[in-house]
């Protein structure tokens, strides 16, 4: 057993930086570097997001991976799972889906894994910063029937100020008949961790007020607050255990507040967001400074530029019956050098 002291500590592949007051910055640069060196050459590209819109789509006729490729798939997904749980919550949704595919991965699954690796390659410098706040806040959301077996997907996140202190993205264990029901199941998925967090903070001598759970479905809020008394013909079949939260609301331990979908951080963990919506929520979840976001954007652009240069490094230009190999194109049409080149070609003709 070893112990360490100071403001910068190493623990299980993570670097914990306590240099700033009331903040801790968590990074895994060395772990990520080692992981990226293990990736095959065909993954050396860039991606602006860790998953495309078709993340949850599965083609049953897709070709299965060979045993060797399947073992590599499982190995990389397991390592990504650890990274996503510790400090890179921005890949958690994609990794959650890939974890459901490790038993029998196919070529499409391999492409989805490739995209996650490409995203990490150009966002290596991103870190998670947890900043002290007042009390615990929870965001709970779900995506209805997105999995091939029509199961829904839960997204749960907690903060103690800024930055994700706890988050999970997981497939629900049962089928639901509506999005309202799926949201209620997601709240039930979160309740165990919600109550454990309350007990843990209280054991540290911290005053724990009523815990707020943010939810963007008003029908689900009514069901959670009123239990079976708010049930209609579409929700009478719900098991009583999904009204467990109703008892906790009456006891004053938790309360549920409406949150617009555009501000619902739990939504980030239920579907593969793209573009500005992805960047905006990622920055809040990881508590990124604007400089880190700009650096990540520049890294994506730089990686794209390098890959395009490699692809256009050797070109074959055919004229008449001959062919010339152009290895390094340093000028283009419209430039002084380009005009000279065109003039020389016309004279030779």
Describe the structure.
With 349 residues, the chain is an alpha+beta fold. It has three domains: 8-126 and 290-306, no CATH class; 131-286, Nucleotidyltransferase, domain 5, CATH 3.30.420.10; 313-348, no CATH class. It contains ten helices and ten strands. Strands 1, 2, 3, 4, 5, 6, 7 and 8 form an eight-stranded mixed β-sheet that branches. A two-stranded antiparallel ribbon has the order 9-10. The longest helix is centred in the middle third of the chain and has 25 residues, at 179-203. Mean pLDDT is 84; it is low at 314-343 and 345-349.
The radius of gyration is: 25 Å
Approximate strand percentage: 15-25%
Count of folded domains: 3
Largest sheet: 8 strands, mixed
Q: How helical, in percent, are the residues?
A: 40-55%
Distance between the termini: 80 Å
Number of strands: 10
What coarse outline follows from CA principal-axis ratios? Answer: globular
So, the CATH homologous superfamily of the largest domain? Answer: Ribonuclease H-like superfamily/Ribonuclease H
In terms of quaternary structure, the protein is: single chain
Do you know the CATH topology of the largest domain? Nucleotidyltransferase, domain 5
Low-confidence stretches: 314-343, 345-349
Given helix and strand content, the structural type is: alpha+beta
In CATH, the architecture of the largest domain is 2-Layer Sandwich
